[in-house]
User: Fold these one by one.
Assistant:
Number 1:
Amino acid sequence: MTDAAQNYEFDPQVTLSLSKKLQLLGLIIDFSGALIFAMPLFKSRKEVEEASKVYIGVSPYQLRTRERDRKLTICGLSVIMVGFALQAFALFV
């Protein structure tokens, strides 16, 4: 072994640059946004049964569900955009 290899000590503290930290944070935020965006897809059996009922006129359940899904979609997309912006910003830091 060379002298340099014998003197090498493993440092368990891994230090990340600011750019890498921002990229990691952006990825985590993107993943969170994707989960929020997908929440309307995970419905319980009761919710599916309520959505399947036939009503004369407008279904109050459908109105509530569509409004909730719309809000979750907007929130999820917004969070994904913030995560993407952080990753893009990390390229210039």
Note: The radius of gyration is 23 Å.
Number 2:
Amino acid sequence: MNNAEPWVLGNTPVRIDPADGSVTELATVDDGLDPEEVSGLVFVGCLLIGLAIGLLTGNTAPWLIGALGVGFIGMAITRYITGEW
């Protein structure tokens, strides 16, 4: 009967076998993007859309300034929704 308790060694969960003292690293699950990463993607996405529209219309600066404002607002909304304010 193996009743090894899981332990955390640093940031890595491990299992120590009481019979022989061997240490086995347990698998961890990455649950995807952090909320701060998502808000950063919203910001950069808005800037790239503004850049593309600005290049297509020939008015790059005004579109980039507008996209910068929309990007900051989008980032704030994303952080508010995800609770990472």
Note: Residues 43 and 73 are 8 Å apart (CA to CA).
